[in-house]
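FORM 12-B: Structure-to-Sequence Request
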């Protein structure tokens, strides 16, 4: 082949038009075995399928090796010239042939030869140096770093004979007077054709025929565009659609390299599809294509892929020396518009499916939390349901504890081992991080944190739990702050990037949680009111009977019935408001002087009950004495005194009513014995 630089081994230098024509000729004469033998003889690493695809490109070196193999196998020294003659004719229906025919005449094709030649090779310059009706002198020269091969010269001769054939005329006659492969500075070809016949093509009848042919070609091209639209719209997979767009663009606009880069689907992920970027960093090229300002580089067509509602990215074709006809740029723009339409459709379908899944998950969440009777139940169900609605790895629910002035963990999911133990023990106060006051101040917008958050406390949580992204979502209902929901990921942090879709989803989740917590708090309040005395805050009459019934199923215990001595005198002397104050003081004294396991009840007007688990007899009497003394020590307008009757279970009585009767009887004994004292049931 002669000496060539390493540049000759780079793909994208020769169109596969020559290879496709050669493969067809060899297959017609010898079948698939002959094709396999040809490729093996050439030593190139390209398949027959690749070589037959007119949209593909190969290296200048591989093209030369294939031509040499064809000559050796066929024994025909002119086979490459004949391949050149057949190339345009055998591919008359292709986009390139249609493009050339649309120029109107053989002479017009030769006028545009420099540009037209780049559709077949990007490393050989072809230019007309003399042009007149029926005759043109063409100069061919290899670009820097390449050397003309004699067989390439023959292929060029065959190709130069073809333009008249596109218009129904006989092939042109081609004579090479200088050959670069034989030592000349350039190749010179004199091409002649029948000018009279060409002129006849301009008479009205022939012109109509030619126009009809061009119209048919344009109709075919338009049908290809429509077919592209039909194919693409039928696809609901974004990547499949993008692959098809790149393939169609490569068929419609002839160039060695194509690059499509778009933002599609959720998040900020770049989808890249390309042809001809062999061994190149396509991801870097895609980012550069999306980031750079559009320029007027003649070697590239770059069009925006954008619809009326969204900008997706860009589509680029690249060919050296600006090898594009004006209408190719228009056609490329058409495919970019189709790409945008398809992406609109695919994105809408993807978002619709996502919304359907999220809506179903939100419905299930709503049903789950709606039946949750307590705040803890709501938190548990929320933490379990969130990963089905939000693309996250973990969910934690913290509720605000008014008495502790802190956020405490009430439920979590997706967090194993030490990280789980750490999260469960978290108690977040305003002293730990200013974020607590921020979310408590009525903020409804989520807070987003990346891998290296500025807040030291949040940064420490990241280190302990291995999180890479975190969203803190305040839970607020009816202007009341209930807590926060944290969602986090341990990989692919882009899943929690701030997007309108994620914000909408989080808002839907929190709305369900806030309403459920509001309802749960209301139920808890009503339940508390039903079981507690409004005046003293102690458990009430109903709770007393329920607790007593439950205790009768367990270990021994004592029941102390407590009654304020001479309470009627307090009301008569000082009035009912001060009587209520006396009740609260007695209740407080009783509650502060019992064990954690003991329970104090207000069961009547001035009557209280105390359940003392594990205590009976004298031990219970001693506990009752502490209660009596505690009340007696309370300062008031007049001395506060109580009488207490104590009964133990198991004892003489076998049931709840019998036990209460025994304690009441002991209480009356204490009253009759002078008040302000303890009496044990007999």
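FORM 12-B RESPONSE
SEQUENCE OUT:
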């Amino acid at each position: 082949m002669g000496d060539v630089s390493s540049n000759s081994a780079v793909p994208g230098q020769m169109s596969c038009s020559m290879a496709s024509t050669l493969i067809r000729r060899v297959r017609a004469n010898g079948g698939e075995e002959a094709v396999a033998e040809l490729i093996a003889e050439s030593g190139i690493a390209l398949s027959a399928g690749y070589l037959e695809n007119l949209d593909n490109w190969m290296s200048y070196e591989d093209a030369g090796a294939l031509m040499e193999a064809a000559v050796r196998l066929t024994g025909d020294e002119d086979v490459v010239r004949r391949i050149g003659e057949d190339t345009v004719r055998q591919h008359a229906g292709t986009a390139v042939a249609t493009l050339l025919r649309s120029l109107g005449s053989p002479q017009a094709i030769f006028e545009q030869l420099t540009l037209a030649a780049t559709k077949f090779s990007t490393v050989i310059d072809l230019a007309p140096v003399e042009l007149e009706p029926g005759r043109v002198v063409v100069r061919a020269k290899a670009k820097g770093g390449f050397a003309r091969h004699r067989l390439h010269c023959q292929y060029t001769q065959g190709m130069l004979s073809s333009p008249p054939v596109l218009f129904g005329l006989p092939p042109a006659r081609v004579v090479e007077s200088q050959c670069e492969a034989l030592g000349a500075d350039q190749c010179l070809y004199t091409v002649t054709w029948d000018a009279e016949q060409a002129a006849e093509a301009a008479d009205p009848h022939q012109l109509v025929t030619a126009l009809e042919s061009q119209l048919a070609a344009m109709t075919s091209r338009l049908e290809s565009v429509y077919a592209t639209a039909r194919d693409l719209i039928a696809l609901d997979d974004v990547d499949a659609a993008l692959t098809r767009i790149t393939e169609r663009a490569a068929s419609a606009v002839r160039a060695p390299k194509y690059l499509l880069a778009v933002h599609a689907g959720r998040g900020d992920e770049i989808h890249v599809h390309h042809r001809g970027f062999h061994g190149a960093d396509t991801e870097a090229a895609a980012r550069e294509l999306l980031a750079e300002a559009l320029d007027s580089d003649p070697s590239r067509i770059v069009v925006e892929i954008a619809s009326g509602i969204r900008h997706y990215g860009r589509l680029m074709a690249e060919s050296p020396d600006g090898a594009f006809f004006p209408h190719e740029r228009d056609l490329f723009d058409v495919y970019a518009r189709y790409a945008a339409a398809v992406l609109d459709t695919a994105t809408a379908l993807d978002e619709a499916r996502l919304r359907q899944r999220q809506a179903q998950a939100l419905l299930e969440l709503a049903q789950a939390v709606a039946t949750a009777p307590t705040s803890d139940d709501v938190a548990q169900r929320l933490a379990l349901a969130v990963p089905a609605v939000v693309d996250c790895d973990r969910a934690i629910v913290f509720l605000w504890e008014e008495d502790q002035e802190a956020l405490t963990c009430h439920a979590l999911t997706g967090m194993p081992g030490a990280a789980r133990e750490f999260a469960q023990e978290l108690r977040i106060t305003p002293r730990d991080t200013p974020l607590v006051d921020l979310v408590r101040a009525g903020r409804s917008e989520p807070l987003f944190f990346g891998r290296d958050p500025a807040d030291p406390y949040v940064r420490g949580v990241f280190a302990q739990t291995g999180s890479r992204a975190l969203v803190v979502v305040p839970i607020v209902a009816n202007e009341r702050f209930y807590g926060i929901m944290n969602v986090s990921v341990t990989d692919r942090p882009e899943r929690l990037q701030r997007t309108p879709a994620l914000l909408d989803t989080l808002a839907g989740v929190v709305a369900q949680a806030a309403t459920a917590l509001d309802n749960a708090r209301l139920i808890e309040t009503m339940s508390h009111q039903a079981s507690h005395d409004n005046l003293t805050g102690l458990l009430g009459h109903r709770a007393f009977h329920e607790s007593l019934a439950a205790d009768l199923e367990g270990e021994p215990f004592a029941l102390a019935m407590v009654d304020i001595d001479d309470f009627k005198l307090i009301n008569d002397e000082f009035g009912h408001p001060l009587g209520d104050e006396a009740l609260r003081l007695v209740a407080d004294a009783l509650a502060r002087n019992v064990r954690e396991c003991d329970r104090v009840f207000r069961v009547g007007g001035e009557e209280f009950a105390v359940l003392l688990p594990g205590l009976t007899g004298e031990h219970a009497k001693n506990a009752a004495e502490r209660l009596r003394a505690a009340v007696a020590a309370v300062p008031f307008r007049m001395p506060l005194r109580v009488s207490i009757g104590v009964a133990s279970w198991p004892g003489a009585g076998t049931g709840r009513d019998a036990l209460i009767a025994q304690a009441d009887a002991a209480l009356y004994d204490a009253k009759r014995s002078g008040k302000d004292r303890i009496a044990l049931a007999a």
